[in-house]
Amino acid sequence: MNFRTKNRKPLELSLTPMIDVVFLLLIFFMVTTTFSKESMIKIQLPQADGVERSQEKQLILTIDQAGLYFLDGKAVGDKSTEKLTIALDGVINKQRPLLINADARAPIQSAISVLDIASKKGFKNITFATQKD
Description:
Blueprint: H1 16-32, E1 59-63, E2 69-71, E3 74-75, H2 81-89, E4 98-102, H3 108-120, E5 126-128
Parallel strand pairs: 1-4, 4-5
Antiparallel strand pairs: 1-2, 2-3
Helix pairs in contact: 2-3
């Protein structure tokens, strides 16, 4: 009988294959990931479940089905953006929230024009009026 202990080399764990796999996974996820561009304009759709706000201090801009603009119930003029620009220039307090009350069948270009002009004129708090289902 041979009871001698054999001298064994200590086990070495090589981390190189694991690091290679991690880098390959990292490259795979970087290549396959799609980045969506977030819109700068945050809007609410015409129908939503939300909290009602008081309309006392808000500046209400209404867009009817034909795309005509009304500022606090008064007609701005025709569909031109120049008249809307002049009307929004006449607003003294730009810190008031601007509530866009657009008809669901109104042209979307009308609402986009309002958002564009209002942001250029210094309005910071712009929201859309919605109704519950």
